[in-house]
Specification:
Elements lengths: L5 E5 L5 E3 L9 E3 L2 E2 L14 H4 L8 E5 L2 H14 L5 E4 L10 H4 L1 H11 L4 E6 L8 H4 L6 E6 L5 H7 L6 H13 L4 E5 L9 H6 L5 E3 L2 H4 L5 H5 L2 H7 L10 H9 L8 E3 L8
Parallel strand pairs: 1-5, 3-6, 6-7, 7-8, 8-9, 9-10, 10-11
Antiparallel strand pairs: 2-3, 4-5
Helix pairs in contact: 2-4
Length: 276
């Protein structure tokens, strides 16, 4: 399902943001856009300043950053002159491959700059099959990159309940397979854990040898407080699956995945998003 958003062009001074908190293992985060058309119900950015003070519903607007490639290229050159290490997380508060990327191609332009002046490490986080479009650029960063695809559940009914505007599960899994076939480091992020079937671990084990499991309490940057303010628990009550909402759900899920994955293939929360 695709929803048109209110689009605005902006011209930020910089593209790179010094990383901290959950992403403290990185030197910078990189967001091609402000706002995200996927508008996932549990997205922690809804409770951040950019989400709270916009006076527009999260998911209905997107700001497109202009001259992004040139700015990023200059920033990296300046960092390299100072012999600074550069590890980048793309993206921390938007999906770099949300639908508007089809037309605007800001993310692709940023990747072109990163191929020219390569960082020490680049982590690409998305839930979009559009990511496969840029395979030609990813392979040029092969030893300095990891692509992470969010797949929180294998149940379409659950996906539609929590993230109705996000891509269907099947096309995400197909994208992961294509990434893997191109020899690129890829993981699946079961983040946050949503109710899933008993077949889910086996399905993922056929595609990847690395997964990251996260929940609302460890992954929303506020020990679950942001998620509670969003009223996500009510969604679980509505479908009578309240047992899937709690502080230890990700650990219970991890036990299920251990039936198909070795312990060293399962990363929990922050450790699964770190460089290297």
């Amino acid at each position: 399902m695709f929803v048109e958003v209110d689009k605005k062009y902006t011209s930020p001074k910089k593209m790179l943001t010094p990383a901290s908190g959950f992403l403290s293992g990185y030197t910078h985060s990189l967001n091609p856009y402000v706002g995200c058309a996927y508008g996932c119900s549990y997205c922690y950015v809804r409770q951040s300043p950019v989400g709270l003070f916009r006076n527009q519903e999260w998911g209905t607007w997107v700001d497109v950053k202009q001259e992004a490639k040139e700015k990023l290229r200059n920033e990296i050159r300046n960092l390299r002159r100072r012999k600074k290490k550069i590890t980048i997380f793309m993206s921390s508060s938007t999906d770099p491959y949300q639908p508007i990327e089809h037309r605007e191609m800001v993310t692709r332009s940023l990747l072109e700059a990163l191929v020219e002046s390569q960082p020490d490490f680049l982590f690409v986080q998305t839930r979009s099959p559009i990511v496969t479009r840029d395979m030609d650029l990813f392979v040029k960063l092969k030893n300095r990159i990891r692509i992470s695809m969010t797949v929180e559940t294998d149940l379409e009914a659950i996906r539609k309940k929590f993230t109705p505007f996000a891509p269907p599960i099947g096309v995400r899994l197909k994208a992961v397979q294509e990434i893997r076939e191109n020899g690129l480091p890829v993981q699946i992020a079961v983040a946050p854990v949503l109710p899933f079937s008993k077949d889910f671990p086996n399905t993922l084990a056929k595609l990847v040898d690395r997964i990251c499991i996260d929940d609302y309490y460890t992954g929303d940057g506020s020990h679950g407080k942001r998620t509670e303010k969003l009223g996500i628990k009510q969604k679980y009550d509505e479908i009578d699956l309240k047992q899937w909402y709690g502080k230890n759900v990700h650990l219970l899920a991890a036990e299920q995945f251990k039936k198909e994955f070795e312990p060293e293939q399962i990363y929990i929360s922050q450790e699964g998003f770190m460089p290297g």
